[in-house]
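[step 3/7] inverse_fold.run input=structure_tokens len=229
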């Protein structure tokens, strides 16, 4: 995947699949940035909190149900989810281009727990050829972040982490959780998309503590952000 030429946002984007460590890392990185005097906002799934993005998030989550026994991958099961989430990304990315997070605007930094990349991969993996987030959109409109990190872990570590967590936020999580081999294949597919893209860093998290990951990302952000203190 070629580097996006979309709007540059001041912040750190964390992408990855279930149990890769995104949410915990986002929380710790936010704490580290604030401790160093950086104004920072933390977002999950979308950058701009609007009625439209919230509505699409709710509809996407509710669209995947009754996945027990469904094959993997199942394009019919995931199509409604991917349509709703892709629409959310299109709208949110357009709004973000005029947000306080645009690089050089002297606004707050953003710690973003998932945005367009994992959704792009879901589309390409489950519903290839249907064009919900096209390659042309990725190349010209998908927002970039000061630091873009894809977090991953081994199947064994993912299974260990899954066993320590109760419940799932929505049907897609349950579906992925019930198909560990499918998660591993999807994870490898995601990594393949950015393997030769220097604007991304792929971070295996098996051997790193959450504090180590957050500190590494903090260092990268400060090195690349001209306004970081």
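[step 3/7] decode complete -> sequence:
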């Amino acid at each position: 995947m070629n580097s996006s030429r979309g709007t540059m946002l001041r912040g750190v984007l964390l992408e990855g699949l279930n149990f890769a460590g995104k949410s915990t890392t986002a929380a710790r990185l936010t704490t580290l940035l604030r401790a160093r005097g950086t104004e920072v906002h933390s977002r999950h799934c979308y950058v701009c909190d609007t009625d439209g993005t919230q509505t699409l998030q709710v509809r996407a989550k509710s669209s995947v149900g009754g996945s027990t026994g469904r094959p993997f991958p199942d394009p019919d099961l995931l199509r409604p989810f991917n349509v709703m989430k892709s629409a959310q990304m299109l709208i949110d990315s357009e709004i973000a281009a005029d947000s306080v997070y645009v690089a050089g605007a002297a606004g707050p930094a953003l710690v973003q727990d998932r945005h367009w990349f994992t959704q792009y991969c879901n589309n390409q993996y489950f519903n290839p050829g249907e064009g919900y987030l096209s390659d042309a959109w990725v190349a010209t409109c998908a927002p970039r972040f000061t630091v873009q990190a894809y977090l991953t872990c081994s199947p064994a570590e993912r299974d260990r982490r899954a066993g320590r967590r109760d419940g799932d936020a929505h049907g897609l999580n349950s579906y992925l959780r019930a198909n560990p081999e499918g998660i591993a294949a999807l994870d490898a597919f995601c990594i393949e998309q950015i393997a030769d893209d220097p604007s991304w860093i792929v971070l295996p998290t098996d051997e790193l503590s959450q504090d180590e990951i957050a500190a590494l990302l903090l260092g990268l952000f400060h090195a690349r952000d001209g306004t970081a203190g």
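[step 4/7] annotate
The radius of gyration is 17 Å.
DSSP finds nine helices and five strands in the chain.
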